[in-house]
Amino acid sequence: MKVKIKSILNVIGHEELYVIPIACNGKYVLGLNFFEDVEGGRVARFVLIMDRYGEINSIKVVEGDKGIVIAEGVRDDMDAISKVIKIDRKMVTNRIPLFINIKVKSSPETQDRGIRGYENYIKRYGEIDPSKLKGIIKLDVIEEVV
Questions:
Q1: What is the model's pLDDT at position 145?
Q2: Is the distance from CB of 128 to CB of 18 less than 8 angstroms?
Q3: Quick check: 146 pLDDT over 80?
Q4: DSSP, res 131
Q5: What is the DSSP pairing of strand 60-72 with strand 140-143?
Q6: How far is CA 58 from each of CA 10, 13, 107, 128, rounded to the nearest angstrom?
Q7: Which of 9, 19, 82, 106 has its CA 20 to 30 A from that of 125?
């Protein structure tokens, strides 16, 4: 996956979510998240996390400010992940969320959609082994300068 990050990020919200790390490139971690789109839903989506201190090395609860970045190769990468774990529904778009100013937590404090979607997935299919997902996707990050 190739991600382009503009030098100025427009923050559009604040969110808490479970992140399953898939790939790393410097301070950026590409993660898989399950999002509750409808009650009981579990849509798989990619998220990008700015992890300056290397804290996201297993499934973690992360809270942070959210912006949107442009990504290429989302469909192919989602198909590759789908061959390893069961995914019912996929969010395939060239716009993925980037989380900055993150705080890694030991447990969720809210019932945001990024938390409930993961819990819905676990109830249906059981825990995910993140080691199975490592190395499937290569992450390239391009930071654009204005």
A1: 81
A2: no
A3: no
A4: G
A5: unpaired
A6: 28, 24, 13, 10
A7: 106
pLDDT at 42: 94
Count the neighbouring beta carbons within 10 Å of the beta carbon of residue 80. 15
Looking at residue 18, its pLDDT comes to: 98
> CA-to-CA distance for 19 and 59, rounded, in angstroms?
6
Pairing of strands 60-72, 95-105: antiparallel
User: Residues 56, 104: contact at Cβ < 8 Å?
Assistant: yes
d(CA 134, CA 2): 17
Contact status, residue 82 vs residue 45, Cβ threshold 8 Å: no
Question: Under a CB-based contact definition with an 8 Å cutoff, are residues 7 and 145 in contact?
Answer: yes
CB atoms within 10 A of CB 92: 14
Q: Round the CA-based radius of gyration of the chain to a whole number and report it.
A: 14
